[in-house]
Structure formats: C-alpha cells, structure tokens
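Anyone? Bumping this.
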Amino acid sequence: MSSSANTVAVGKKGPRIYSREAVLLGCIIFLVLFVLFTATVSRMYHKSIHVLADNWFDEGEASFRAGDIKSALTDYRNALVYSPDNAKFQFHLAQALAAAGRGDEGRSYLLNLLSESPGSGDVNLALARIAAHKVLTSDALRYYHGAIYGEWDNDPIAMHWQVRRELAEYLLDRGLQRQAVPEIIALADSTPANDTEQLRVVGNLLLKAKLWTRALEVFRTILSANANDEDALLGAATSAFNLNQYSAALDYFDRQPEKDRNAPGVAEMYKTTQQINEMNPFLHDLSREAKAHRAATALSAATSRLQQCATQVGQSLTVTPPQTQLQKAFAESKELSGGESWQNIARHSETLDEVMGHAFEMENASAAACGEPEGTDRALWLLGRSRGVSAQ
Amino acid sequence: MTEPTAVTSRGVIQSTANESANSTSTSGIRAMWASWTNRVFTMREDRFFLFLAVLIGILSGLAVVCFRIAIEWTQIELLGSSISPTFPRVVLAPTLAGIAVALLVIYAFPRARGSGVNQTKSAVYVSNGYIPFNTVVGKFITCALAIGSGQSLGPEDPSLQMGAGIASLLGRRLRLSQEKVRLIAPVGAAAGLAAAFNAPISAVLFVLEEVIGTWSAGVLGAIVLAAISSVVTMRAFLGPESMFRVPPFRVAKPADLLAYVALGVVGGLASLVFLKWLAYARPRMQSLPRWTQHFQPAAAGLLIGIIGIRLPQVMGAGYPIIDQAMHGQFTWKLLLVLAALKILATGFSFLSGTPGGMFAPSLFIGAMLGGAVGAIEQHFFPALPGTVGTFALVGMGTFFAGFLRVPITSVFMVIEVSGNYTAILPVMISSLIAYGISRSYVKVPLFDLLARQDGLVLPSVEERREQLILTVEDAMRVDAASILEPGDKVTEVIKRLEGKENLLCFLRARPGEWNFIERSELQRLAADGSQTHTAAELQFKGPLPFVFRDMSLEEALHWAGDWPALPVLSRADLSKLEGLVTLEDILKAFRKVPVA
C-alpha cells in the first residue's frame, strides 16, 4: 500500500482524489498531531493564565493589606478573569467587597461558594459578618452556626471557639441577651481550664450577660492559676459585688493595684463596697458595741434620708394613721421598743436585726418614692437588698 | 488498492482494500490495517456517518480550544491583562486591528465576512454542503484578531462556522453521498457551537431550530454525537466548568414569577430596537463605496475604543463582565448604560463587516438589562425572591430569544451556561414574552433578514415551524364508503347503494386488510345475471394501503395516486373504517390552505 497506490489522479488539473482509507488515515494522523498541538498550546496557555491570575491575586493581597481596597477589588477581579472558578479568589474578592461596604455584592460571590461547599466555615463566617453588618439577625445566626459547625482547614477547634465568641458578642451588642446566654454558656463549656486568655474572654462575656455566678467561677479559675491577674480580680470583684458578696468583692478589689481600683466605673463600685462593709453590723468579727454603733448610725441615716425624701415629695410623716410607704416606714421605726441609741442597742443585742430591718425598710421606701440613693444610703440600701429586704 | 470505494445499491460501502490486503498479508501492520479498514469501510453509510460525526466533533472541539486560546492571547497582548486597559491601548488596539482585519477579509479571506449561521444554512440549501476550508482559516485568524482587540463580537458564530467548515471538508474528501455531504455541515456547526458555549444541548437545539429547521431523525443522532464529542474534547483542555457562576435562588411562590414578566417586556423591546437598527443600517453600510470597507472595521474599533476609555466593559465578548453582573457588581444605572452602549458597540462592529458573532453580545446585553430590571424591581419590592444575578441570567435568555428568535434554545442555553436548573420557569416566561414582542414588530428573524439582504432566499425556519400541517382528517370523507360482509348478495348491496353517491365498496378480509370493488363493477355483475352471487364470490381488488386520520396528507399522497381511494382506519381497531380519502380530496384540501 504505497502512497502512490493510494491516490487516483482524475484529470491533470483537477484536485487529486484520494481513496477513503487514505483520507481517513490522513485524518487520524492529523487528529493525533492536532491533539498534541492543542495539548501543548493549552498547557502553555494555562501556565501563563495561572501566572497572570496569581500575580493579580498577589497584587490584590498587597493592596488589601495596604488598605487600598479599591485597587484590591480591581486586582482580585483581574485574577478572577483568569481563574473564574478559584474559590480562594472569589472569597478574597467577597471579603474586599464587604470591607468596601459593598456587602451585597460580596454576598453573591459567597452564596455561590456556599452552594458549592455548604459546610465551609470561612464562607459561612464571611456571610455571617455581612448579615451581622446589615443587622439581619436571623441570617447572621444561621451563618454563624454554619461556621461554628462548619469545616475549617486550620485548627478547627480554635475557629469554632472564635466564631462562637464573635456570635456571642454580636448578640450582646444587639441586646439579644436571651439568645446570647446559650452561646456564652456553650463557649464557657468548650473553654479549656488552663487557657487563661480564653477564660478571660469568656468571663467578660459572662459579665456582660450578667451570668454572675458563672463569671465568678471563671475568674476564680483564672485566679487559682495566677492570684494577681488584674483582669480576673476585677471580674471576680464585679461578679461578687453583683452577687451581693460584698466581703469577697472587697477582698478582690483590695488585691487590685490602686490604679485599677480608681479606674472609671470601678472606683464607684469599690467605694460602695467599702461603704457597705463599713456600715455592715452583721460582720462576725465586730464587737457588740461596734455592731450597735453601726446599727444606730444606719437607722439615723435611713431616718434622715426618709425625711428628706418626704420633704421632696411633699408628704407629712406625722399623719395618723400612716397612708404611704414613707409614712408607714417612719411610723414603724418610731415603735422601736428599745429606743434608737447605740447604747440601747448594745444593751439589747437581740434588737439589732429589728433596728436594721427598719433601716432597710426606710431606705427601700425612700428609694421607691425618690429614686435610687447615693453614697452611704446606697450602701445601706444595697446591704438591705443583700439581706433579702427589697422594695414592695 | 487503486480503485475507489463504491456505494452499492443497498448503501453498503464495499472496499477492495480487504482483498488487496489479504493477497499481500506479509507484514503484521498491513494485516491489522486491512482488518481495520475492512471493518470500517464495510460499515453502512449511516453508521459511517455517525463515526464521522464523532471525528468531526473532536476536530471541531480542538479547533475551538485553539480559537479561544488565540482570542485570549490576542487580548492579553493587545489590551493587556487587566479588565481596565490603559488609555493608549484601549483606543489603538481595536483601531489598528480593525485595519488588519479589513485587509485580511478583503484580500485573503473574503468569505470570512458575514454570519456563520447563514453561511452554514446556505451550504445546506444552496451549495450542497460546500464550505471552503479557506473560510475556516479566515474566520479563525480574523475573529481572533477582532475579538481579541476589543471589537464587540463573540466567538460562538465563528466557532459554529469553523465546525461546519471542518465537517464540509471531511465530507467532501471522504466522498460521502450528496445528501450526507449536505447534512454534514450542520453536524459540524453543532460541534463548533457546543464547544464554544460548553453547552451541547443548546447547540443541538440551535442547529435543529435555526440551521436545519426540522427534527430530522437522519441527522439528529450525528448532531448529538458531534456536539457531545466536541464538548468532551473542549472540556479535556479547558475544564468542565460552566460559563457563569450564579448564586442559588428559588422561586417561593407562583406569584414571584410575575417579576420576570417585566423583564420579558424590556428584553423584547430592547431586542426590537437592536433588530430594527441593524435592519435599517446594514443595507446603507453595504451601499457605501467599496473602498470604505478598508476603514469600516477600524472606524468601528475607534468608536468602541472611545467608549472603552470610560467603560472598557463593553469591549470584546464580555464574559467576565457578565459574570460580574451576575454577582451584583454594578448598580442598575451602570447596567442600563452598559446594555445601551453594548448595543451601540456591537452594532458598530457588526455593521462594519468585522467578522465575529452576535451570540456573546446578545448574552451581554440581556444580562445587563436583566440585572438592571432585577435591581429596580428589588428596590421597589425588596421581598422579591432571587438576586440581581438571577435576573441577569434570565435576562440573557430573554434577549437571546427576542433577538435571535430561538426561544427553545434560549431556555436550555441559560440552564447549560449556568449549570442552574432553577431558572427554567422564569426564563421560559420572559423568553416567551420577548419572543412574542419581537415577532410582532419584526416579521423576519435576524438570520433570515441578513440572508435576504445578501440576496439569498434561504428557507425561513420560523415560517416553516408555523406552517399548517394538513392531516388526513382535513380531507377525508366520513360517509362515502360501504362495507360489504362476505355473505351479502349483489342485489342486496345494489339496493343498499341506491340514492347514495358511494363509488367504492370495501370488503374487510381481516383486520388491517381491506379490499374493494367499484360500484360500476357491481352493477355490471348484476346486469350479467350474477345477482345471487355473494360478496365472497366476487373479485375484489386490493389489499388497499390504509391511512389514519392523524397522518399528514403528504404521507397519504404517496399512495393516493395508485388507488381510487384509501380507507381511513381507527388506530385502536384496524377493522373499523372511519372514512375514505381520494387523491382529489387531498388536492382540494391543499388548495384551501393559503401559501405562505
């Protein structure tokens, strides 16, 4: 089957007519060569395209890090032109869009990525942040949970913890305490006891959520490892204060450096705690006289506050029979069997509770009529509350 | 092996190769070759045609891969790798490339100008499947240069024509029968389009819907095979990813679909504007002095470059921009501006005679319009489901249906290019509306219009699709036949026929076998004294071919001329006569229908 045998010339000037076998053989040879050529060209093309895409992406990263979001967006888009399905590029573009305040545009890229990998922690978190930024709480919750239970390439446990923390902070910032509580408790449960940093974060979240008991536990755990941890001392003091454990609170406050105790927001709490402890006649290590002295002072202060309040609201305290809470509290205090001098109280130590009870009732009545007290009255009022006397 | 192969009367391709090889089977390679050729060349031609379809698909796929790479590289070299080219490039690249393209088209590849779809159609209907290979080369070079330099045209139409050209060359070289050579161009066209769009179903539908115009079983298998093999080839080199990545969405309730009605109206009106402009401006551009053709592509390139200084998004095929629109990257105002400017830019490129296709620009325009409509609707009705991206996706199909007038293709194309099935209902609704609007105000579809402007009268697929198909039911007579039982006597039959105009009497031999006797014959027998004869004793003619009432009249016409009448039988019971139809009835029915 020589090549000359394969061909049949038809006319001198007409096109050469080849046998079908020869044409087919030629086609197959051409096909093989064409495949090889295309493969070579395609490899070169892909290589150059990948280089271009990576270069643009690197430029985008550099711009993003330098805070030039506009340039970063263009660079990421250029990168995506050459690698349109690259999830990493899409993700970074979406993040840049979100950073540029164009969350809606970023969201569509992220949704696309999410449809391809619904369990991606990164994508869920980015979507959650966009939803949180737009205050779409139900979406934010859904995506945060997707991120918490999602897949992470690096250190998934740490990422789950971080995302839950972010979610808890978002919920607390939005005032959604009821939804925040289970997240914070879950966060506390998943925090290792030896990780002081994480415990500190959890403790502060528990404080924000007013979970005082859990917060105190967490701060005590930190203090057991480092008794001088300043943040933990403050957290423990705050928790103890709110749990009406004023002695413990004072102890934590006293262990703090002075500068911390005098910080705004702390100083007043510290002062109140000191006042409570100075006014508290129920402390065990006090002498009978000292207790009686404190009780008499408390009664005097409460009576004075009640009278001021009555004047303020225009009520007479001598009305018979008494009508208002102020009048009733005042009248009851006057019925004290043993008088109100400290000597009488010291002499009849069994009246201490009764005297203090009247003092607390008067502070409560005053607080109800004239608002929360300040200074020593506040200390007395809080002490009363800690003793189970609350406003009607 | 000096004799060519021959097609026998049974359609079997005989080859002398096996005999020759057997006689000289001295080497192993020769024996293998002989065995292989024996198998291949003794295939029936229709099977060989399918084998060839795969080969065409692979070759077209490879060609399209190279074509797309050529466009990308040209673009990177001429415009740079950024989506926002620098000022000198954005103006100079399309202008200078325009001059080069014009020179190439005028002096080297004159047939590269014009629509690939129409050239393929004309190969089928005018030139017996002939598409010069020079056109394939010309399309490749000029389109890569034009699109790569930023002319607002797409690579799909040239890919279609390249596939058709490759197929045509193979068909001619392999000396297929005339019919097969004519049909092979659409096979290649489907392969080229499928690879260009990464969408085999849409390519098959487009070729059937627009190029061939019929669902011919003879070519359907080959078209499907070619499309699949080209897409597989393309994916092997360029990856299997869909063209666009659309964020997922769902239509929550039927009322949500109303949102897409507005998109259908806008898409229809926009396609109308574009069609009217092209129809008006093209003959005027063609009537300009011939020397101006040297500068028309460059002028178009300059205008596009000027637009591109502020909005480079309108340059080139624009697929990355469509992707961005689908991800809501543009405001509705910018989307509207981009749609309007793309119509202008595409018009400039197309009217200037720059080779390239209209598919990608129409997708671009549709996506921008869709995105704009979606953004506006969502501004006023924030509860609407779907994203701007969804509207952009649906908008692509909508404008495509209205502009190219291929409603079925547009629906499947949207699904295939996005890999997203959920958009099917919205696309169907808006595409249908856009198609309806476009059809109402522009009677002739784009490709037919271009062909007519070029002096070709190619069959209009749209007209053909809507032609009334007459069936036997339209021509049959219900009470014009008498049925004889074998025991009926001639006298009784004649009495029964009195006062009736029946010409024929049918005798049912068994279900599906009907014989007949003419009334005049019965009367002659009666006159000859055969009154006592029963029907069973008479000489009936037949058996008659029968028809059903739903069969087309064209089918019935095959037999009607050879017999005085054809029985119309029930499909459920072949012994039940529903009527009869004669040649005269058929012709009368045809005459009633006005000619399109």
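Late reply, but here is one note on the structure posted above: Chain A touches chain B through 42 residues (CB under 8 Å).
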